Amino acid sequence: MNTPAPDTHFAPRHILGIEGLSSGEITCLLDAADGFVALNRGRQKKSNSLQGLTLINLFFEDSTRTRTSFELAGKRLGADVINMSVATSSIHKGESLIDTAMTLNAMHPDVLVVRHPHSGAVQLLSQKVTCAVINGGDGSHEHPTQALLDALTIRRRKGTIGGLVVTICGDIAHSRVARSNIHLLNTMGARVRLVGPPTLIPPMIERMGVEVFHDMKKGLEGADIVMMLRLQLERMHGTFVPSLRENFHFYGLDADKLAAAKPDALVMHPGPINRGVEIDTSVADDIDRSVITEQVEMGVAVRMACLEAVTGTAATTPAAKPKRKKKARS
Ligand code: CP
Asked: Is any atom of ligand 1 closer than 6 Å to the C-beta of 217?
């Protein structure tokens, strides 16, 4: 019997979530992204692997990092990049998400990057179009490229992801970043802890293979990575914390609470940060501990790797190679 080859390639045409990706697929994307870091740091940042291809950014929610870095990633790879302005589109004349997607699809884009406030909307859209779709964040469901850029930041700093203790703190309940990171970190063999008030930790989340803490210092004890999350007020219907000041007192990261983590623990945050709400300025700006701006830098490299992967233009993706026909069994 043949032993199956190790799964070290990235095969899916869409990137809709981290859930379901194998460690080999994640490693393949991280390796490819790592290769783009040096290119992005150089003066000449252009490659032409996506020359002739078209990328459309379709963001139904605000974004600074994700939209800009997908635009940069596409342009650096030589693609034509269109940023759809949802605010001035025909969506305001009653056109639905699906009709909008099918309209754009008729113009033959190669990749649609979509952010939408509803969980599952990007997956639904991907079933209605013929191009590749990358999820730029859907509701509180998944934000796959954020988890990949977080993983690349961690791997470059710590050399590995497996075996690390990663503590994710804050509004877990409304966070697509938390969900994608939990899937990725578990798949790559890290130990994941969650810290937050009971109102912001979903019930039964332990089933995802995480430990839950409501006391921040206990959750941070011995952590290698401290990942802070903002309160996602735009997704909250009702009051989840008594006050922002109280939230900071119990769950805001400052030097005193950070002292519970390992002395070389890294401080991460997907952004946008709210100083004095979930993180103190002295920690956010500590150049020895905080890698927040490095996460942004890795975002461009990761999105370049993802664009190449879904278009089959990466040297290592199977889609880039001619497909061999399976022999019929006699
Ligand atoms: N981390 C993140 O998704 O940031 P933006 O909302 O600015 O894209």
From this structure: no
Ligand 1 and 61: CB distance under 6 A: no
Please indicate whether residue 63, judged by its CB atom, sits closer than 6 Å to ligand 1. Answer: yes
Q: What is the pLDDT of residue 122?
A: 97
Over the stretch 221-234, which tens digit does the pLDDT of each residue have? 999 999 999 987 78
The structure tokens listed for 261 are 């983590």
pTM of the model: 0.92
Q: Establish whether residue 273 lines the binding site of ligand 1, counting it when its CB lies within 6 angstroms of any ligand atom.
A: no
Report the nearest-CA residue for atom 1 of ligand 1: 270
pLDDT over 90 at 168, yes or no: yes
Q: Please name the residue whose Cα sits nearest to atom 5 of ligand 1.
A: 63
| Distance separating alpha carbons of residues 203 and 52, to the nearest angstrom | 48
Report, as an integer, the average pLDDT of 130-159: 98
Buried b (16+ CB within 10 A) or exposed e, 121-140: bbbebbeebebbbbbbbbbb
| Nearest ligand 1 atom, CA 68 | 8
Q: Residues 294-305: what's their mean pLDDT?
A: 98
Residue 247 pLDDT grade (very low, low, confident, very high; cuts 50, 70, 90):
confident
Distance CA(37)–CA(112), nearest Å, equals 23
Give the number of other CB atoms < 10 A from CB of residue 311.
22
Residue matched to tokens 């030097």: 255
